[in-house]
Amino acid sequence: ILALHLAGKYKEISGVITINAALSVPGYESFEDLTEPRFIAEGKPDIKAEGIEEITYSAVPITAVHNLLNLIKFIKPKLSEVSCPLLVFKSEEDHVVPPDSSDTLFENVSSSIKKIISLTNSYHVASMDYDKEIIADRTSDYIHLCCHPFYKISV
Questions:
Q1: Of 20, 53, 81, 144, which residue is 20 to 30 A from 108 by alpha carbon distance?
Q2: Entry pTM
């Protein structure tokens, strides 16, 4: 979401690529007005593939949750300020961020060059999941076609 904020603020940014962008995190929303507990336990990473290890913290500070939720509130009404090329990856099944969060992003930016790609075989941590090669390949293609100053064409 920080990249979206920066892209809206600095028009010289060549493009933004998101993977399961968090414009809503239902698992954190119940902590919005709380000050306790100081730390919230984190569950197992949301990865469909077996045997993949993501390095994570066992708990997240509630202040970090508050910062994330405040950033989401700040960014959502400003999405239309994003006008650079945008590539959105969205897992159709995500247990952390609702897939419609990516749809909201896609529908509300003012980018004339934008594409959304559905990932059908990955959960939230898609860059480490079954669809990681799709993400890598499509990201590389997108950068060359959209964001590289020598190519600048629509996808």
A1: 144
A2: 0.90
